[in-house]
Amino acid sequence: MLALGVDLAGSEGRPTGMCYLSESMVARTWVCYSDEEILSSALTYQPGVVAVDAPLSLPRGRKDIEDRSGPHFRKCDRQLLAMSIKFFPVTIGPMRSLTRRGMRVKELLESRGFRVIEVYPGGAQDVLGVPRKGKGLASLRRGLRRLGVRGLSRGASDHELDAAFAAIVGLEYLQGKAVALGDPEEGLIYMPGGIRPVGKLH
Questions:
Q1: Where are the domains of the chain?
Q2: Vertex 107: Cα angle to 82 and 69 (nearest 5)
Q3: Rg of the chain in Å (alpha carbons)
Q4: Which residues contact 112 (CB under 8 A, 6 or more apart)?
Q5: Which residue from 39, 63, 71, 85 lies 20 to 30 Å from 95 (Cα-Cα)?
Q6: Contact call for residues 130 and 137 (beta carbons, < 8 A)
Q7: Which residues of the chain carry a pLDDT beneath 70?
Q8: pLDDT of residue 199
Q9: pLDDT at residue 195, rounded to an integer
Q10: Which architecture, in CATH terms, is 2-191?
C-alpha cells in the first residue's frame, strides 16, 4: 500500500514537493517541476492514490476559474471555515492558477488510471496539532516523526514536508480512515481521521 503526496506549485516554473509513503510509514521526498514529471513519478511508484495539495474542482455554479460572478466557496471550503481552518479560496489571486493546474494534473493522472484526491496539508497540520511551516521547518519535521514517518532527509524543503503530510492523508484514505469534507458531486477535501500522534507535537 503506497500513497504519493504532491504539494503542487501554481506553475511549472516553481518547485512541486513530492513524497511517497509506504504502509510502514517510510517516506522518500523530492521536488519536480513539470506536469510530466509528476506523471512520471506516479508511473514509477504506482501508488494506490495520489493526494494533491491543490483545489481540484470549482464551486458549483461557477462556469470557469475566471468567472467573477460565480460563487467563491465549495461546500468543503465552508466546512473548513466552520472548523476555523484558514485557507485561501480557489478564486482569489494566485489560487486561480493553482486551481487551474490542479484540475489539469488531476485529469492527466486519471487518464492514466490513477486515483486522485484533494488534500490540504495546512488543515491536516491543524487537525493533528502540528504547527504550520510558518512556525519553522523543525516543527514540521518533529510533527512527522511523532506521527511515525521515517526516512525523511534533513535537507527536505517545506514543499517536500507538506507533500509528506499530503501522503499521510493519502495513506489514511487507502486505509479507509480519512474524513471527507464536501459534496462528492462538487468536490471533496480529505482530512486526517485515524492517525494519532505519539506524545506532544508542539
A1: 2-191
A2: 50
A3: 16
A4: 39, 42, 43
A5: 39
A6: no
A7: 194-202
A8: 40
A9: 56
A10: 2-Layer Sandwich (3.30)
Adjacency order of strands within the sheet including 49-52:
27-32, 16-22, 2-7, 49-52, 116-119, 187-191, 179-183
pLDDT at residue 194, rounded to an integer:
66
- Measured in degrees and rounded to the nearest 5, phi and psi for residue 115 equal -85, 130
80 CB-near residues (< 8 Å, 6+ apart) = 87, 120, 123, 181, 189
Task: For residue 74, give Cα distances in angstroms to 53, 62, 67, 116, 188.
Answer: 16, 10, 15, 18, 9
Helix (H, G, I), strand (E, B) or coil at 19: strand
DSSP 150: B
Please name the residue that has the C-alpha cell 486526517: 192
pLDDT value at position 114? 98
* Set of cell numbers at residue 121: 496539508
pTM of the predicted model as reported, rounded to 2 decimal places: 0.92
Q: In the prediction, which pLDDT does 100 show?
A: 94
Tell which residue, 41, 59, 60, has the closest CA to residue 51: 41
